[in-house]
Protein 1
Amino acid sequence: MEFWRKLLNIILPPRCIKCGRILSEKNGLCSECFSSINFISAPYCYKCGRPFEKESNLKFAAKQYCGACLQKKKFLFDIQRTAFIYDESSKNLILDLKFRDKTVSAETLANMLYQCGTDIWKENPDLIIPVPIHRLRLLKRRFNQSALLVKYLALRCGIEADYSSLKRVQNTIPQVQLSGSARRKNLKQAFKVTSPQNIKDKKIVLIDDVETTGSTLNECAKILRKAGAKAVYSITLARTES
């Protein structure tokens, strides 16, 4: 097997998923591109994962919470984590996977989800569920990028993937075209749990590509909790800085 692996690397050498540079090993990103990504690291809000400013004169507790989470105003899930900031350096990683059929990057991106989800894995979740897309959008795009990420993430962490219990039943306007309260209204009754018996008393990890306001994740968490989920966590690849 080692011989065939080396032969394949000669014929089809591994390349950086960001710049296309040939790599000596199949590690996804070259050192230059890796350094350009604004990965999220502590300190951040323990609940929603929003990064705090890293000021040297401040000391952060092990479980620090942002103002919104302290007031319980924002999220319906228990813990949220994100791999990196969505900016000019990282956005093509998302766009290439989502719209340009660069599915070869999914395994590397799933590894990033795994690395940033340490606090969630400690909670011993039962299921990993991708945020679903409507069947009409699925026909047009041919795959759900979140489901593809879940495929590799489930293999990495050994947790069961569930692709069918949570469905998107309304083909809503893309969230990127809306803002504020319009996003929340757009998602009302957009999702449905089709197999409550698979959800009841389970700890669920939701997976999505980008978090902007958290409206989509919140709506999914609400539906899963109504179906009896014991806990709902969330991991996304990227989040906007706002």
Protein 2
Amino acid sequence: MIHKEYADYAWEQAAQLLAIDSPSGFTARAAAWARDAFDALGFPAHITEKGGVLIDLGGGDSSDGLLLEAHTDTLGAMVAEIKGTGRLRVTNLGGMRAENGEAENVKVYTRSGKVYEGTLQLCNASVHVNGEYGNVKRSFDTTEVVLDEDVRSAGDTRALGIEVGDIVCFDPRTRRTKSGYLKSRFLDDKLSVGILLGFAKYLSDNGITPARRTYVHITVYEEVGHGGAASVPAGVTEAISVDMGCVGDGLSCTERQVSICAKDSAGPYSYEVVGKLIAAAKRTEADYAVDVYPHYSSDVDVTLGAGFDLRHGLIGPGVYASHGYERSHIDGVYNTLKVLCGYLEV
């Protein structure tokens, strides 16, 4: 049975990755970090042409391979307009919402390598001045990035090197509480990258070789819908997304459990794979829930949509407040690791 120390290791790795800004389209540093982290555990890893990371965890039967998918790209924003005031109108990358980003600190990355700080604020954000403050519908047209620089015109901002197309990253505010709760933006899905590193370390530390060939694909365009559309190694017959498990009204999963998804917005997952995941949870005594996600799609949905002939599944630690300031728990991490071990019988 895998020890809980590997859940702690998974969180430590996830926390390091969360400190690297990587919204969709701006993932090179995060991908390089993931490649190096798997390499350090003794598993060959390389950057794909698309920018993801493909890792070989070894194993025996390569004609019945398993691909585990997680993503390191996150939500974020891009400069869409430099206003006459010198402030920035932004457009979202992925499902980032203005309501969840308002009053959050941001960094603006320029193509020259300079980085500037600012805050996403409602336009005319002072309550003592704006009598309609509470009535304004939040969107990326009614909010703006206020730079922490002395800028008063578009020319002032451009003089800093900021231009349309520059990337805007939101502060993740990562922390672990004494009670084991894990809080951060972008646990979706950097927490699961950490989990796969924890699984890889378990294999490495114990000299375990899976009976079937096992690969990991860390994708970099999941949040915009095409992360898992490529880089499936020959011989793979099953692909499992290790992503966030949904927590909310109408669902049974909590942050302390591993979620097994039976169906999402793209349709049902493989009945066979879901059954084997449930059996793996029972065999390893993992605390699990089976749920149907109402507004969700995963990397493996895209893998099937790209035409790959394989069976698919989805698991992940329960995550509350998805696409906002998210929360999970170290027990959810541990239960996810248990299911992975049970599924591969290692």
Protein 3
Amino acid sequence: MKKLTLLLSWLLTLSCLTSCVDEEEFPDTPMGNFEALWKIIDEHYCFLDYKNLEYGLDWQQAHDKYAQRINDKMTDTQLFEVLAAMLSELRDGHVNLTAAHDMARYWQWHENYPANYSDSLERIYLGTDYRIAAGMRYKILDDNIGYIRYESFNNPIGSGNLTEVLNYFILCQGIIIDIRGNGGGDLTNAEKIASRFTNERVLVGYIQHKTGPGHGDFSAMEPRYLDPAASLRWQKHVIVLTNRHVFSAANEFAMYMKALPSARLIGDVTGGGAGMPFSSSLPNGWIVRFSAVPMYDAKGKSTEFGIVPDMYVPLRDEHLKRGKDTIIEVARKLLSQ
């Protein structure tokens, strides 16, 4: 079995990826662009059946509903609003429509939930004497717990960076990895970090590929494994802090870590985003990005709508007023035990 890197690294990023998808030609008219967009999603989006089961999404019904709002006299701005509204029916943070004047996006997956994170508290815990390695800020807290703040998987991480960080924490009782607010990025960074916390190959999930235009046309599930790093690996406990803003590659990282016996997730349910995004274009040149390749956890369950932590811990107002982060404090107590 090839490593995750060979399967996935070139596919998943929060930037728009282009795909060579042959589409039926539609005229560059309001209705032509509407039909082109609807058909792209109908034939290539990977969660239509899943979301029909989860909340009753009917993509044909969406077509009929929004087609009534299309007319040949509408402006580009009006057309964009209708197309964006139709895409919002998918409830997918990986779905965007990009034009010269705007980008349609669905952010309710985190906007409708508590943040469970405070940058003001982060500054208190990190202080001014923290270290920086690639995209990681890290320090040893006063109870001998290692703390890593990693805000985006777009920040590249080298093997040498990770070895230096783990060496610095070598006498610590455990490590906290805080990925709250991390919206994703390069999946290879998620694999690099997670591989430092296992000594054996671990089944972390499955992947499928679209094989035809039907909503259920998929290949068989292919297993995905996480291999241990060839370099220094952490042998003690590690806790990953999550909130609803943890999405895409960060969601995958949380999934990897939850599959490891030495790791625990605490905080809030993650934001999800379990479909690798691809993109295509409409007759007028607008670009649509959509989830095309579904991924699942080690039990074969979709994490499109998030991963439940091992321990749910909210950020409490009474702690916030005292300059304490409830989620970090619970993690410190667990690791100290």
Protein 4
Amino acid sequence: MRMIRIALGLVSVCASVACGAGLQPRTWTVDGVRREALVHIPDTAKTTAAPLVFVWHGHGGGMRISAWSFPVQARWPEAIVVHPQGLPTPSLLVDPEGKKSGWQQKRGEQGDRDIRFFDAMLKSLKEEYKVDERSIFCAGYSNGGMMTFLLWSVYPETFRAFAPCACVSLPVVQLSVPKPAFFLMGETDTVVKPEWMRETAARLRRLNKCEDAGKPWSPDTVLYPSPVNAPLAVLTHSGGHTITLGGKVDDIVRFFKEQLK
């Protein structure tokens, strides 16, 4: 238990450091409920059109852990980066009573409170800053990856590309518009079974009309070209239920930037 407390303390310290690195807390009131996020705003965002990236944490996580473990703001400081905070939400796999923070998984759940939260954030950021509306991206880990898929299904034309990580796309979440996507999975994931994620990757290849044969894109990533300009990059690492720090986020940012060319 002592080692666990020490580990959690180190995570908390690292998260606090990340919060101090150009991230500011923001709040919105959505349907009478206070919602919050950590937001990185480039110094030039008032005068120069900036990319916008939403990063959704996993179930039981939070915006501070997301800012530390999925540090898009450090890899792409020219972008506006938003790490939203979830509310207590049931999860059939890990939290059926809904005691921990998370996101709705399909349309209509929780009164669509998280979709409405996204709407409020996007509206206010576009009003306050010069957002490049052709360069809006969405990424997420685990339950946050499922939120990413949900936003893909609801607002496909809003986003340039997506990066759902360590998650599955539920059949009830209908994806109908091909979009560039970066999909990450772990070979030893014990929370989201690798076979489920392989089926999700196959579903994305079909949706994006990708070529059957992929080509190496990074040491552990295969890129499947698409004749409809919706390439799919599939990164398979040897770890478990994690995005693995550092280089994997670099790859996601690289992929997002490539979609702007």
